[in-house]
Amino acid sequence: MIPPTPRTAASWRSAAGVLLTATALLLTTAPASADPAPAGGDITDRLEAVPGLRVIEEIDTEPGFRYFVLGYEQPADHGAPDGQSFEQRLTLLHRGFDRPTVLHTSGYNVRVGAFRSEPTRILDGNQISTEQRFFEPSRPDPADWDDLNIRQAAADHHRLVEALDDVYAQEWISTGASKGGMTSVYHRRFYPADVDGTVAYVAPNDVRDHEDHAYRRFFRTVGDDPRCQEDLEALQRAALERREELVDHYTGLAEQNDWTFDRTLGSADRAFEMLVLDTAWAFWQYQPHTEACGEVPSPEASTGELAAFLDEVAGFGFYTDQGTLPYTPYYFQAATQLGTPSVPTRHLRGLLRYPGLFQARSYLPDELNVPRFDRWAMPDIDRWVTHRSEQMLFVDGEYDPWGAEHFSVRGGKSDTMRFVAPGANHGADIAALTDEDRAEATAALRRWGGVDGEAATLADRVPELDDAGERRERIERGFR
After folding, report:
1. Distance between CA atoms of 76 and 85, rounded to whole angstroms?
2. Does the predicted model carry a pTM greater than 0.70?
3. What's the burial of 57, exposed, middle or buried (CB within 10 Å: 0-12/13-18/19+)?
């Protein structure tokens, strides 16, 4: 994920005297408009002058902004730049040439539609949103899956920053949530000078894939009331004890919706077992636990009630070919470099039919040649973040299972920090932090983005962009 002219990193200033109030998240810099371009032309002209960049479409958006769908030609293998290439899809929300720029990575597909991520709102900046290589349509054809790894993806982002650095000459901030947050971290590790700061939300850090005690500890201790996890485990047992009825229900849903299982998990029965194994994880990842804990059906509930809960929390549709095949690039990376977590199964002894099912390789089509797991990739990232990273902000949720194995930082000298949002799940953000942590995080972001000297104002929100951004972030944090 990875040296043109290094960017001068924003200087670290003490947070003392720049802490903002609890409303800091809603504070942005004084409103700017999508300004006339400096002596280089209109934004469209500037974009069209970038070698390898294609303006696919400009879409009308809110006043003060311009929104583009773009394509950028990338080498399939950055080690062979004159070889095969593919077009990486991205979008641009243009605010002004005098504003900082946020490089927003989803880690998956980029969805077309203007929105502002949280750092973009705080900085009142431009936003470039990128699609991860090998997610359709940003996939080489034919695809050599050996080219899907963290170094190659980091090089994609490096070339993009290089290409647009003359268009957007102010500070750059990278950000992403979940796998997008991981992607931002890997980019920084291999190209640390590309951007002036990074905000990585709910980004897992599975350093040693075979050591999963952190996940087991999470499920033993999560929540305010241990009965909630106990109720979830009882529900899982009940579901597996009624496997025949529930698999029949699943098969009926598949017939109604033209779902299939043959390319990934293999059968409705295997898909059902995976769904049940995933239920407690999905519950803590997504559900507002304070309300949802009281809605877990008892083991004596009807089969229909169990099915409805399983569908609401995990979703029958996801564990089909139609649900999982779009995520094949993620599962390939998880099986080869990123690692995958574990879930508790002791309470399900005697009820499981498929030992070893809960792993990324279970989702991969048979035709993929999956290489041996690279056990050095994540320890290298972890060492770099812990000992060498600068100007990075990690935000995690207290009740998010993906945060059980998280990035560790050494605060102070490197201006790198981590905060945990109390009671939050996989949707944790700066807004969800305590007042003190929110102020420190916002001050750091504004400092890195070069706007800490600007007066903060209660500028009007742009609901069509900001509310869409919040919805988009929730979708992108639906990390499997």
Report:
1. 5
2. yes
3. exposed
